[in-house]
Amino acid sequence: MASLPEIPEIAARFxxxxxxxxxxxxxxxxxxxxxxxxxxxxxxxxxHIDVPRFIxxxxxxxxxxxxxxxxxxxxxxxxxxxxxxxxxxxxxxxVLHRYNKKPIxxxxxxxxxxxxxxAAGGKLPLKSAEARRETVACIGxxxxxxxxxxxxxxxxxxxxxxxxxxxxxxxNTYGVAEYKLPARASLEEIELIRGLGVEFxxxxxxxxxxxxxxxxxxxxxxxxxxxLGAARRLGIPGDEHRDVIDALEFIARYKTADPPVVAKxxxxxxxxNTAIDAANAARRLGAEQVAILYRRSERHMSAFAFEYExxxxxxxxxxxxxxxIRIHADASGIRSLxxxxxxxxxxxxxxxxxxxHFHFDCQQILYAIGQSPLLELLSSVRGIELSHxxxxxxxxxxxxxxPKYFAGGDCVNGGREVVDAVADGxxxxxxxxxxFEASTTEDAExxxxxxxx
Amino acid sequence: MTSNRGDMQENGKLGNxxxxxxxxxxxxxxxxxxxxxxxxxxxxxxxxxxxFDAGWGGAVWKTIGEPIVNVSSRYSSVDWNGQRMMxxxxxxxxxxxxxxxxxxxxxxxxxxxxxxxxVASLMVESKREAxxxxxxxAEDAGADGLELNFGCPHGMSERGMGSAxxxxxxxxxxxxxxVKEKARTPVIVKLTPNISDIRVIARAAKRGGADAVSAxxxxxxxxxxxxxxxxxxxxxxxKSSHGGYCGPAVKPIALNMVQQVAADAETAGLPGGLPxxxxxxxxxxxxxxxxxxxxxxxxQVCTAAMHYGYRIVEDMIDGLSNWMAEKGFSSVEEFRGxxxxxxxxxxxxxxxxxIVAHIDEAKCIGxxxxxxxxxxxxxxxxxxxRVSGPVDGHVELxxxxxxxxxxxxxxxxxxxxxxxxxxxNGNGTTPLARIPRVxxxxxxxxxLCSLVCPVEDCITMVEVASGRPAETWAERTSGExxxxxxxxxx
Lengths: 453, 490
Prior knowledge:
The complex is a heterodimer of chains A (453) and B (490).
Chain A: H1 8-13, H2 23-30, H3 40-44, H4 51-59, H5 63-73, H6 77-83, H7 90-93, H8 106-119, E1 135-139, H9 143-154, E2 158-163, H10 171-174, H11 183-195, E3 199-202, H12 209-218, E4 221-224, E5 244-246, H13 247-256, E6 265-269, H14 273-284, E7 289-293, H15 305-313, E8 317-319, E9 322-330, E10 333-344, E11 350-352, E12 358-361, E13 364-367, H16 375-378, E14 386-387, E15 390-391, E16 405-407, H17 410-413, H18 418-452
Parallel strand pairs in A: 1-2, 1-4, 2-3, 4-16, 5-13, 6-7, 6-13, 7-8
Antiparallel strand pairs in A: 9-10, 10-11, 10-12, 14-15
Helix pairs in contact in A: 2-4, 2-8, 4-5, 4-8, 5-8, 6-8, 9-18, 13-14
Chain B: H1 8-11, E1 23-25, E2 28-30, E3 34-36, H2 45-54, E4 58-64, E5 75-80, E6 83-90, H3 99-112, E7 117-122, H4 128-141, E8 145-149, H5 163-166, H6 169-182, E9 187-190, H7 198-208, E10 212-215, E11 219-221, E12 243-246, H8 251-262, E13 276-279, H9 285-293, E14 296-301, H10 303-308, H11 313-327, H12 332-335, E15 354-359, H13 369-377, E16 382-383, H14 401-409, H15 418-421, E17 437-438, H16 448-452, E18 459-464, H17 473-477
Parallel strand pairs in B: 3-4, 3-14, 4-7, 7-8, 8-9, 9-10, 10-13, 13-14
Antiparallel strand pairs in B: 1-2, 5-6, 6-12, 11-12, 15-18, 16-17
């Protein structure tokens, strides 16, 4: 099984942002839930977890039933309870907002049920006892593939997951801030999927058309849960310096390898959720000054409002309408980031205003200005349609324009949340299973006709 | 009932004068109507003096008699929706302290608190001499009155005492008469609810000469079973015994029984009948006001004091005073019994009265609990079709709960990205599609939706003209024998 040793320093510096509920607090909180009919929280959840049902089961001390309700909708219910931006999902939709009351703490209740399930050694249930002969390959072991693989395996199909890295989980393991979801917790959850009988092959990168054709021969269907590609680089003089670091790599390193040495002053470029995770991590790892520099204003940033508030509490500074121009370094390392005030020019493009140049003193620069699509791989798949680097699929099934291929997660939506990816994966898994089951019925019917004939 | 108190504020402005809470209950004077019931909170003099310091007007001493032996593990409770002790059950017997200690402390308390009511609760074996002796002992000690415990449902009843007396009218009458032969102070008979018609025992007490009754004692109960040990609670070394149930859960049962006694011409039959001391789930000033409105002259409290301590009386006094001032009542006697006559037999209810549910859209939070309650538990006349949908009419026209849920599950939801998708949850107003609509042509006015609605005053029941003159079932069926089918004709 894939596992990680606990790194005491990381555990100490990245304690739970939302600590677990005690049993009594969970019961008190679960009893606040109104048990809405056709509940808006359930509608807002991309995996449509039946929230009032699982919360009611906590209130009635049926914790196993509660966890199975969650897992029935979302096989990554444990990590989603920690990593989801619930403020804009289930908890944001809670009707108590309109009653001048605190919304139900759905995420912490979900974590409570899932922690109890894991502590009791719970296993994922099967949905069918039948062993099926059909085979599916999932490329990438991130949330989308995990959702797809679990659904298919629970229905008796054979699934193999191919992952280029050493550990499964994708961003769940490598990319979510440790104070939300420790890598170890992600791996613990995936262990249950492996326990179903899903086969994982690590260190296997599928890239070329030849490799894809081999998979096509070996498997009945292929699910693309490949995520996104390399981080976009800054593209300014000096950005090849070794202390100019991809924010996602920085996060992956502190989560799964030795804690990185962090400079006294760190600049973070970009204002998305990854930038904030990286900035907070730099603070927690010991940086005295961390500043997020962003080309546009506060209201344009793609980070959630609650993430912005959290970063300010962590002591991260924000500088708005700033464009990085050049990185200055000497033999001892980076000295400063030269910036200029940004302005939208007549062509609608942001540019530096002459005469506003200044130096931000820093020794490390983390960049989080988005990831490029995995064009090399995706364009090798014959017959799948891409749009702006994203795989075009049928929304309800994840079916691509090549009937052999399904796709979901970031490679389809351009980069959203874990819960969106796992929902995509599950829909694809269900669609493939239905197609397999329907073809079996057809075969049986035609066989019956042959006999009669 | 002579005065209509619907316009009480017009009737009696009191100015700044605080209402007088003092009561004279069957000759027992008390600073206020709040007494502690005979129970663990009145086990000893030290407790009762602290209770009087906290503000209680009176206390009924924990039942005295021949000392008994108690078991360890005596209480169990029913919790509800995360709240503790909706109902409490006990298998504790009467006082386990030596009789002379209790008697001496009754005297001590009366000496130090002459203004407060101290009532001795008594229970001895069913022998005339035994009762004569205990009555003299209690009165000599200084008790202001006596309460005969004919109601204890557990333990003592197996020995021919407590509810074994209170369930047999002849015994109740006989022992009450024995007590009255000796007693110089008012005698209150405590009624057990573990009987099919409480009025039968109240009448027997009156025939025996009782000066008042108190109701109700605890209700026979098993509160629950430990699903690990399979032993009911409270667990006494692997076994349990049925106990006496009390607390908020029993209040509606107590109110009904109190009203039955209060409305009975042969006993309480207001005015001028037997005074009633109300007991059963009273925890707040509102509970107390309700018991008084159904005829009680005092109220007795146990479970709430066991749960939170004597301090709860502060707001019972304060809240009742404020309510009385607001309503223009200057004394407890002014509103006592005002609701007794508003309880009637069903056949005297107006069949032409019609109310329908009204949903305040501005207050609705969109939980749709009224919708599912109406569909599954009532008459299928609340619908969630506000955006587009069928008009009023029969159920077959409308989406069923299952189809509503299926449609939601079939939607594809995405995590909103602020930059791309804007604010996720709107401006905090309930979307029209989630505000249910009442089909008034089908609404029978059952009240269920207004009961399940979590938002105060969001669903109200509004009277509408039925177009029919007032008529009761009794009136409709008087004279000729009308077939029941007439009810369904509008």
